[in-house]
C-alpha cells in the first residue's frame, strides 16, 4: 500500500521546484516508460497495476523491466489514480532520477538548436522531438524556458528528452567565439529555400518565444535572419512548426 508520504512526493513532482529539489521526475504510460527503460535514465521505482501487468501485449515491456532489474511495486487502480496526472491512468508509472547535466562542448562541429524562452509545453516537446528526428543531438534552453521534464513536455516529446543532450539556462553569448553560424528564425529574414546551407555549418538555430519572438538579448548575436516564405494566406506559424520546417532544410543532404 502506498504511504501518504509517497503519494505526496509523486504528486509534488508535477512542479518544477520539487523536481529540482528531489532530483526526480515522473513518466506515465507504456510508450514513455518503455523509452525511459531503454535510455540511460535511472528508474528509481516502477508502479503498475495488476490489470496492466496481466495483458499479454505488455509482455515485452514486462520482460524488459525484469531484464533491467527495475524495482517494481504492484498497486491498486485506486492508488494509481491517486498519483496519476492523467484523467484515465494507463496503469504504469515510473519514478525516475533527473539526468546529470554534462558540460557544454561547443568547440566541435556539432549543430545546435537553441530555444529562447519557449513557454508552451507542447511546443517545447515537439521541438525536442523534431531535433531528435533530424539528428540535432544538442539542445540549449535559455532561462525562462519551460522545463524539459514537465509532464506535458514529456508527453509531447515522446521520449526525445532521454536521447538528446539538453543544457539549461544557456546564454547565446556562449556561442559567440565559436565557429558556429547563429541563425535566427524571423518573419522577415532571408528565405530558407534560397540559402546555401553548406558554408553555414556548423550552425546554431535559434527559435524564439511564441508571442515575442527572439529576445533582444539574443537578437544582437544573430549572424543571419532566416524565414519560411509564405505561399498561402496564413497569418503565422507557431514556434514548433516553424522550427521543424527549418530543421528540414538545414539537415537535408548536401
Description:
The chain has 254 residues and is an alpha/beta fold. The chain folds into two domains: 4-97, Ribosomal protein L30/S12 (60s Ribosomal Protein L30, Chain: A, 2-Layer Sandwich); 112-250, Alpha/beta knot (3-Layer(aba) Sandwich), CATH 3.40.1280. It contains ten helices and ten strands. Strand 5 (112-115), helix 7 and strand 6 (138-141) form a beta-alpha-beta unit. Helix 7 (121-133) runs parallel beside helix 8 (151-157). The model has no long low-confidence stretch (mean pLDDT 94).
CATH homologous superfamily descriptor of the largest domain:
SPOUT methyltransferase, trefoil knot domain
Got a strand count? 10
CATH topology of the largest domain, by name, is: Alpha/beta knot
The structural domain count equals 2
Q: Which whole number gives the mean pLDDT?
A: 94
Elements, N to C (H/E): HHEHEHHEHEEHEHEEEHEH
Helical fraction equals 25-40%
Rg computed from alpha carbons, rounded to a whole number of angstroms: 20 Å
**Which oligomeric form is depicted?**
single chain
Spatial gap, N to C terminus:
58 Å
Amino acid at each position: 500500500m502506498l504511504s501518504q508520504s509517497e503519494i505526496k512526493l509523486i504528486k509534488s513532482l508535477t512542479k518544477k521546484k520539487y523536481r529540482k529539489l528531489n532530483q526526480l521526475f515522473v513518466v506515465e504510460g507504456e510508450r514513455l516508460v518503455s523509452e525511459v527503460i531503454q535510455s540511460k535514465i535511472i528508474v528509481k521505482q516502477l508502479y503498475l497495476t495488476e490489470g496492466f501487468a496481466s495483458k499479454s501485449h505488455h509482455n515485452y515491456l514486462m520482460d524488459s523491466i525484469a531484464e533491467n532489474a527495475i524495482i517494481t511495486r504492484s498497486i491498486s487502480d485506486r492508488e494509481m489514480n491517486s498519483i496519476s496526472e492523467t484523467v484515465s491512468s494507463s496503469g504504469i508509472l515510473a519514478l525516475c532520477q533527473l539526468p546529470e547535466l554534462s558540460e557544454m562542448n561547443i568547440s566541435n562541429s556539432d549543430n545546435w538548436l537553441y530555444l529562447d524562452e519557449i513557454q508552451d509545453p507542447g511546443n517545447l516537446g515537439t521541438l525536442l522531438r523534431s531535433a531528435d528526428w533530424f539528428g540535432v543531438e544538442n539542445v540549449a534552453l535559455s532561462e525562462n524556458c519551460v522545463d524539459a521534464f514537465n509532464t506535458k513536455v514529456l508527453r509531447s516529446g515522446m521520449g526525445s528528452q532521454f536521447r538528446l543532450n539538453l543544457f539549461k539556462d544557456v546564454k547565446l553569448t556562449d556561442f559567440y567565439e565559436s565557429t558556429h553560424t547563429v541563425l535566427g528564425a524571423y518573419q522577415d529574414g532571408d528565405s530558407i529555400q534560397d540559402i546555401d546551407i553548406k558554408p553555414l555549418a556548423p550552425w546554431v538555430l535559434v527559435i524564439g518565444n511564441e508571442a515575442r519572438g527572439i529576445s533582444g538579448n539574443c537578437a544582437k548575436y544573430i549572424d543571419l535572419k532566416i524565414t519560411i516564405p509564405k505561399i498561402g494566406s496564413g497569418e503565422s506559424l507557431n514556434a514548433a512548426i516553424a522550427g521543424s520546417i527549418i530543421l528540414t532544410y538545414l539537415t537535408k543532404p548536401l
